[in-house]
Specification:
637 residues; Rossmann fold; nine-stranded mixed beta sheet; 21 helices
């Protein structure tokens, strides 16, 4: 079956060929004129026709050979320039060889060498120049038909210049960089590639207030978080879209493209200045050790695994019951850490026999216990499962750690364990009590040789599974509404890498028995978070998307705490890590109460389970929950 002929493409190709042929004729005539200072002798004039025929024939064949006509002139690229160079060079070399052959039989060359050399440079220049001219005119005409997108670039540095050039090369939109913004005094009042550099404090607000800017791109990847927040807040104030450039290490093939410049996310606003870690003490504890991470497939567990992998442990044991996420972690570690020795173990911390095999065969020396049920409303409806995983699971891991002679056991806890108002928080507090009292007993019996049990507490982490930010993002993509449980509800936030870095450092600095709490910064109103997410999405509150107050969920409280009322703290060498002073429990009493609580699972009586939890944790007062009636009964007693 014959292929359908594309007449338009065929016509375009022959039109390009015709122009190229005209140019080589003009180039040769111009070469003669330049050679003889625009006064060609009469003796040379009869030879011009022969030279034109010879040159035209050779150039035409070379054009066909290298398909110089095939490219679309309006999209001329370096590949087209290469084709022209090769075809002109080959043609000139061919004619030079013919000259040596012809001179053997007659007095005159086909094309004199001086003319051939001058023609080489003229034709090369004209063929390339007309293509560039057509491309430039085409782009200007096309861009003139598209509305201009006025852009401000934050960062008057090399990244800023690269960002500007990347925008200008984009064919889909007509970007116009109107200003650079920078806080570097040495750059102010200067121009970069014809664009003025303005001061962030003096000029940014005024520039945004004019309404001339459509978007601002943060190209400086080293900008301090306080300045970044200042820039973003100013843009949100005037409904200016904010985007950011990724780290140069993440550019595709070392080059920035418009597609890589992404919208600023709410996570960018909540980030804080990078944490300064004492990597030496972390490395001293972890390098060459066999390390077990439970809950390794969860958001926190995965990040702990990634960070531990950088310290070259002898063996990294990734334990979880979630099959698919564990499989994904397996593939990630194979790709990102090809030299790392690790084991992927599918199992449940509630099954002691499975855990016992892991401890016996793989002999971990350090344990990071991140496995837990964490969703407050779900645990409020399923208290027996909360106890089985968060209490029994922790007890199993802790007891086997002691039996196996583990050096350090780090329990990843939560701010919801402080003055708990829900089952989940209370179950984590009971887990804290068990490991802390166990540590106290072991140290009284064996001293420093005993397993060191350390607890770490922190609040919500950005982007974790089931957290509020991914939920809000889904609701925005669906067109809303965004549901906020209460207009006054606040939460502490921390990035996953930041939280896990502090977990590793706390684990390395701990002597045993401490409950480390992290500096979570200032609490954030969830409704303000929702409003900013709407703005960052380029939408308007109430016009494009609404916020609805859905009411507090079972067990939820308005304000999270990192310390209980009766607690105080002592500082450590790290400004973001404090040690909480909490009430201590005798192990025998705590163990007895925990075992009674676990035994209640078999009866599946939620009220009996929660009542026992309240007995173990007296500060556990239910909020917005069916278990509030249990608190009333305790008061009556």
């Amino acid at each position: 079956m014959l292929k359908k002929i594309n007449l338009k493409a065929l016509w375009t190709h022959w039109a390009v060929m015709a122009v190229d042929c005209l140019i080589i004729i003009i180039s040769l005539i111009l070469a003669y004129q330049l050679r003889f200072n625009f006064n060609v002798p009469l003796s040379e004039q009869p030879l011009i026709f022969r030279a034109v025929i010879s040159l035209f024939t050779v150039r035409f064949i070379c054009f066909l050979l290298f398909r110089t006509y095939a490219g679309m002139i309006q999209y001329t690229s370096s590949e087209d320039a290469q084709r022209i160079f090769l075809s002109i060079s080959l043609g000139t070399a061919t004619l030079g060889i013919f000259n040596f052959v012809v001179i053997q039989f007659q007095e005159n060359y086909l094309v004199p060498f001086s003319i051939l050399l001058i023609d080489y440079f003229i034709s090369m220049f004209l063929l390339a120049a007309y293509r560039i001219a057509v491309k430039t005119i085409y782009e200007e005409v096309v861009k003139s038909k598209k509305p201009k997108v006025a852009v401000i670039i934050y960062g008057a540095d090399n990244n800023g210049i690269i960002t500007k050039r990347t925008l200008e090369q984009d064919r889909k939109k007509n970007y116009d960089v109107v200003a650079f913004i920078d806080n570097n005094p040495s750059m102010q009042t200067k121009n970069l590639e014809g664009v003025k550099v303005l001061n962030i404090d003096r000029d940014l607000d005024k520039l945004l207030a004019t309404g001339e800017a459509d978007m601002l791109i943060i190209s400086d990847t080293t900008v301090r978080q306080t300045i970044k927040n200042k820039v973003i807040d100013a843009c949100l104030k005037y409904d200016v879209k904010v985007l950011s450039v990724p780290q140069a290490s993440k550019w595709i093939n070392g080059e920035l493209s418009v597609n890589q410049i992404r919208q600023v996310r709410i996570e960018d606003l909540l980030e804080r200045e990078p944490i300064k870690l004492d990597k030496e003490i972390i490395e001293a504890q972890t390098r060459g050790k066999r390390i077990l991470v439970t809950g390794a497939a969860g958001s926190i567990g995965q990040e702990i695994v990634r960070q531990l992998a950088q310290y070259n442990p002898a063996l990294l044991i990734c334990f979880d019951q979630a099959e698919s996420p564990l499989h994904e972690l397996d593939l990630e570690l194979q790709h990102d850490f090809p030299k790392l020795k690790f084991e992927i173990v599918l199992g449940d911390i509630r099954v002691e026999e499975r855990l016992d095999k892991v401890f016996r065969l793989l002999k971990p020396e350090l344990v990071y216990h991140a496995a837990a049920y964490k969703h407050v409303p779900l645990m409020e409806n399923n208290p027996s499962e909360s106890v089985l995983t968060n209490v029994l699971g922790t007890k199993n891991c802790a007891d086997l750690a002691v039996k196996s002679g583990v050096e350090v056991f780090v329990l990843v806890s939560t701010d919801k364990a402080v003055n708990p108002t829900n089952v989940m928080g209370a179950s984590k507090r009971i887990a804290e009590i068990y490991v802390q009292s166990l540590n106290r007993k072991l140290f009284s019996e064996h001293g420093e040789k005993a397993t060191h049990f350390i607890t770490t507490r922190f609040g919500n982490v950005l982007g974790s599974n089931g957290s509020v930010i991914p939920r809000f993002r889904q609701q925005i993509e669906a067109g809303g509404p965004i549901t906020v449980t209460d207009a006054e509800i606040t939460r502490f936030f921390m990035t996953i890498p930041e939280a896990c870095q502090l977990v590793l450092e706390a684990g390395a600095m701990g002597k045993g028995g401490e409950i480390f709490i992290f500096d979570m910064g200032e609490p954030v109103k969830i409704i303000d978070l929702a409003k900013k997410m709407i703005q960052l999405s380029g939408l308007q509150l109430d016009k494009d998307i609404k916020i609805e107050i859905s009411g507090l969920r079972p067990g939820e409280k308005l304000y999270e705490e990192l310390l209980a009322n009766a607690e105080n703290t002592i500082p450590t060498h790290h400004p973001k890590i404090l040690i909480a002073k909490v009430r201590e429990y005798e192990f025998d009493e705590a163990c007895k109460e925990v075992e009674i609580l676990i035994s209640l699972f078999d009866k599946q009586n939620n009220n009996a389970i929660v009542s026992k939890m309240k007995q173990i944790v007296p500060e556990y007062i239910s909020n917005n929950s069916v278990y509030e009636e249990l608190d009333l009964k305790l008061e009556e007693k």
